[in-house]
Amino acid sequence: MAPYSLLVTRLQVKASPAQSAFLALSPPRKKRGPKQRRPGEERRHLFLLFEDSIPCSRGVSFHSSRMQYEYFELTKALGVRQYHVASVLCQRAKVAMSHFEPNEYIHYDLLEKNINIVRKRLNRPLTLSEKIVYGHLDDPAGQEIERGKSYLRLRPDRVAMQDATAQMAMLQFISSRVPRAQRGSDLFKDINQEVYNFLATAGAKYGVGFWKPGSGIIHQIILENYAYPGVLLIGTDSHTPNGGGLGGICIGVGGADAVEIMAGIPWELKCPKVIGVKLTGSLSGWTSPKDVILKVAGILTVKGGTGAIVEYHGPGVDSISCTGMATICNMGAEIGATTSVFPYNHRMKKYLSKTGRADIANLADEFKDHLVPDPGCHYDQLIEVNLSELKPHINGPFTPDLAHPVAEVGKVAEKEGWPLDIRVEVGKVAEKEGWPLDIRVGLIGSCTNSSYEDMGRSAAVAKQALAHGLKCKSQFTITPGSEQIRATIERDGYAQILRDLGGIVLANACGPCIGQWDRKDIKKGEKNTIVTSYNRNFTGRNDANPETHAFVTSPEIVTALAIAGTLKFNPETDYLTGTDGKKFKLEAPDADELPKGEFDPGQDTYQHPPKDSSGQHVDVSPTSQRLQLLEPFDKWDGKELEDLQILIKVKGKCTTDHISAAGPWLKFRGHLDNISNNLLIGAINIENGKANSVRNAVTQEFGPVPDTARYYKKHGIRWVVIGDENYGEGSSREHAALEPRHLGARAIITKSFARIHETNLKKQGLLPLTFADPADYNKIHPVDKLTIQGLKDFTPGKPLKCIIKHPNGTQETILLNHTFNETQIEWFRAGSALNRMKELQQ
């Protein structure tokens, strides 16, 4: 239908779109003062095309993303009874998702369309989390939506893979036989030449961007270049939620999930619940964004966020910088949350502009109604934190949810016998608990706290100490989060101030946070205390020493503690003594959240994928000790699982660090057979209370867990693992699922699972099962054999039966629950999700 010139008698501004219609105002007439306006001159001509024929016999309302236009009955002189709106006239300027992919655009119009479809269906206000997640539904009109129950099929905007997990992800992608990634994807460096060449050539072959060694930590690079308000980003690292600081839903997954998305297959996620955290008041003094998440972790614990998105809102949000919000979202992984997110605001706009993305900020302004929660939306749980009353926290040791206000930790340390080297009145707690009070090392940086603001606040503390002639009593290390941060803090003098204090600036990498630390100052088994601004402090994670008491806190508190050298020091109340003998108190640090000028980008470390990759070769040597092409796992044989041996019954916490250790094992992340030699070496065997020591059911000898698993595999003995609460918390590393599958496991039976690990187990064809009655954990003994029945009639929601066969000939029957849906059951039957993908392709 041809366009008509329509007379508009009323215009009302309202940013709440229902249709994507572009409304072009005719050139405005010369303005006159109010007294000169002629009757009816407020009318303007609008040229419209409508996609759906709509009767014009009454007033009709339509919405653009900026305005609501109310149209009244047309004059009969036009002879128009109906008209048409064409979405093709949505002429907003196209804005690229990133500078590195100028032809890949942000599709807020599709987000808007899907949100409106879902809002109409649900007929209720939506949280921000729901808007972004439901806005990426593959079928918004037909998708079943029920928080905590239904499985959503989503279309993420992009995929990011860090080097430690990217190797296995790319090996799986190669195995999938998909010729090129269908979604924007990026790889993030490795230092080893062989692995470097593999990732670089694989990226070039399959159309994946590649960030070279020295670029920095994946999450900081994503924040600087790829995250934006409303994005749905999937990353093969559990701290991918860092991007929530820029208003995106950024979720950590295993490599198999990344493969599906790169292959163009809708990604499946159990519809998350939403935990609201209302922030009031404002941050001030020594209290930092890190203290917000340390406080929340203390409330929710390491599993309190499982299956939920944590959504921050309230007036207190505006007192937190964009990178501060990223810190909070980053550590949301430590409470088991699917992800965390903040609503779009002026702090995010400032950060986008400063990182060269003002065009994205302007577009986000236009769609802001979709980037904040609806008034009156419902949260499954609501927590309130008054930032004005919040005190600096230090959490640990051994778990990130053991929260202490700084003023109390030292007392606990003394009671527990922890080294007192770090005394922050944490001191009070440390003394009470007997923890070592002396702080041997203070470490700042990592993906959690390596922003320009973090480095500036730490430097502000350091300058005060230097002015009184003091340096660190503890060793002190600094890890910049990216090449851009490193170059900028070098230019602006922060790095030199921290060096002058006695600090050592490390490479732009994960470093000690992931166990890449060749520590020489202590012997293994020596009890000591370290304080970090990292996100995790699991046993042995940083230095492989199970007696290292690691605490996490803000970078400025770490700096203050490293100067004082003890947990008994509280910078808010305690005094230091300068070289002149005079006492002084550290003032609360103050620093700019962003540089006054532009960021210094440093060296260019990005490799664009070539347009034509047909001649690109990816080489994996058959004799390599670091890389190994994958063989498909065996299909389910159609039979019940009879007489499964118990490899280990795990006592207490069992994270992915316990299941597949990092540190020196990182070099084998691309070689499944070699890295399987670390299977469960950190888990505690309930039979003898030892790590990496289990009974071989055939020989009756105790030996390392991997050796026993290999013995069972060689002799055709299938086995299971029995676990405790929140099994598999921590990293997203799918090696913790691949290794047991590779060595012959068939099921993992626990009281409960962490979200990512449970999904990873399903993806690799294993059965993650939970006790219908958690007390049944106590009925199983390491010497028992188990039979799992019900697999021939394996259906969603129907428990499986487990027969426990004791050595004395007696038996017990218990029920095991599962969370498999129909699609996931097909993964099990096919042997893995990758096998199932190949079946569907054929």
TrEMBL record:
GO cellular component labels: cytosol; mitochondrion
Principal location: mitochondrion
Database matches in InterPro entries: Acnase/IPM_dHydase_lsu_aba_1/3, Acoase/IPM_deHydtase_lsu_aba, Aconitase/3IPM_dehydase_swvl, Aconitase/IPM_isomerase, Aconitase_4Fe-4S_BS, Aconitase_4Fe-4S_dom, Aconitase_dom2, AconitaseA/IPMdHydase_ssu_swvl
Enzyme class: lyase
Subcellular compartments: Mitochondrion
GO BP term, pick one: tricarboxylic acid cycle
Statement: the UniProt record of this protein carries the keyword DNA damage: no
Record GO terms (molecular function): 4 iron, 4 sulfur cluster binding; aconitate hydratase activity; metal ion binding
Gene3D superfamilies: Aconitase, Domain 2 (3.40.1060.10), Aconitase, domain 3 (3.30.499.10), Aconitase, domain 4 (3.20.19.10)
Domain Aconitase/3-isopropylmalate dehydratase large subunit alpha/beta/alpha span(s) in chain numbering: 130-565
Role, per record: Catalyzes the isomerization of citrate to isocitrate via cis-aconitate.
Family: Belongs to the aconitase/IPM isomerase family.
Name of the protein in its database record: Aconitate hydratase, mitochondrial
Species this chain originates from: Macaca fascicularis (Crab-eating macaque)
